[in-house]
Amino acid sequence: MAKNGPEGLITALDIGSSKVSALIAQKGDGGELVVLGTGQRESRGVQRGYIADMHATEVAVREAVEQAERIAGTNIEDVWVSFSAGGLVSDIVRLEVDLGGHRVDQSDIDDLLRAGRDAINPGGRMVLHAQPTRYTLDGLAGVKQPRGLHAERLGVDIHVVSTEGAPVRNLDLCVRSAHLEVKSIIAAPVATGLACLSEEERELGVALVEIGAGVTNVSVYKDGVLTGLSSIPAGSADITDDIASAFGTRRGQAERMKCFYGSANMTPRDNHDMIDVAPANPEDESEGARITRAQLIAVIRLRLDRLMADIGKELARLNFEDPVGRQIVLTGGGAELKGIADYAQQALGRSVRVGRPRGLTALPDAHAGPAFATLAGLATFAAADPVDLRTLEPSRGQLVVRSNPKAMLQRMMAAFRANY
């Protein structure tokens, strides 16, 4: 029988278009995250990252969490939830205060962060993250801890991620309907980056491409900060649908064909390897078709060609254009397709690797692949518990020079009141 969990438990909940997965972890004595239990259920109520069927999604959430609780031998009450739908916007807000040359103390930093809270103008969107990233001293960027140093001016870069409010509220309502408290809703690219990218990669500059079932998120990091992100309403489920349509079979069979026989690359032998295709109608007693593996791969590559073209356009739009020394990391369930890293490297003209979750102890092999990177990243994010400016009280009249003067007159309205 499950018992109430000890203090310090972290539960991550990733609600995607193809699966709902849960993970319960606890900090070890050395600060490491130890996985106590995991759970997974098929997602039936989510389309392109958006909640389309509240009841079906609620049932999947309940079952995934209950499975993780049984394995962990404990009950949980609150969860950290991912949001992976399109419409996410990443921005950097920069501001400074005049110190007059004195030594920076904690009150100066607190005043600056409170002023930063007031400077954020989401334009009616809901803010998911508002986190200080780097400080500046007299224009010198990249200062991680300014306290104790002398400066004429102290500045900060604030990373803001926002989105449309309604889909987030639907997600929140769905989780709470499953009798779970929502600690916070985290943008999936932020969590995935923590799980798959090293600090040095984020510093040097890297693009993270998460190929989910219904959505592909493209994120660009530079100087340690997520500088831009975009979403493409296509993913690995579209490949499955193409296979089902092309060969007249059921989605479940098409998914199996993709996973067991599919590849992003073709070899001469694929023209001779045969695959049996079950008919779409399970009551059809006739023998199904037989296709070559080359025919299957040809259908897969047609969809991949379009997806990679869209990814290339988004990378260019996010100013990730210089191929020298710029790596792309593929993750998400779509990154488990055989040969996709080599294919993407040729299609995008850059070095490509597959990103898998790291940093968690006792993570089961079944949840250690790229499809579960967001889930692991949620636990890592929760353990770090970064500063969020939305929890601060408003500032009281600090003289602030902002990159956008109009922001001085704006205040966070519905987004902060909704506490997202």
Please explain how this structure is put together.
This protein is of the alpha/beta class and 420 residues long. It folds into 3 domains: 9-86 and 166-197 and 357-384, ATPase, nucleotide binding domain (Nucleotidyltransferase, domain 5, 2-Layer Sandwich), CATH 3.30.420; 90-160, Dna Ligase, domain 1 (2-Layer Sandwich), CATH 3.30.1490.110; 232-352, ATPase, nucleotide binding domain (Nucleotidyltransferase, domain 5, 2-Layer Sandwich). It contains 11 helices and 22 strands. It has helices at residues 54-72, 106-119, 165-177, 188-196, 199-204, 236-247, 251-261, 293-317, 340-348, 373-384, 414-417; strands at 3-4, 9-15, 19-27, 33-42, 46-47, 50-51, 74-75, 78-83, 89-98, 126-137, 140-143, 153-163, 181-187, 206-211, 216-222, 225-232, 274-276, 290-292, 327-331, 351-354, 360-361, 400-402. The strands form 6 sheets. It has a 6-stranded mixed β-sheet, with helices on both faces. It has a 5-stranded antiparallel β-sheet with strand order 11-10-12-9-22. The protein has a 5-stranded mixed β-sheet with strand order 16-15-14-19-20, with helices on both faces. Strand 10 (126-137) and strand 11 (140-143) form a beta hairpin. It is globular, with a radius of gyration of 23 Å. Mean pLDDT is 88; it is low at 395-420.
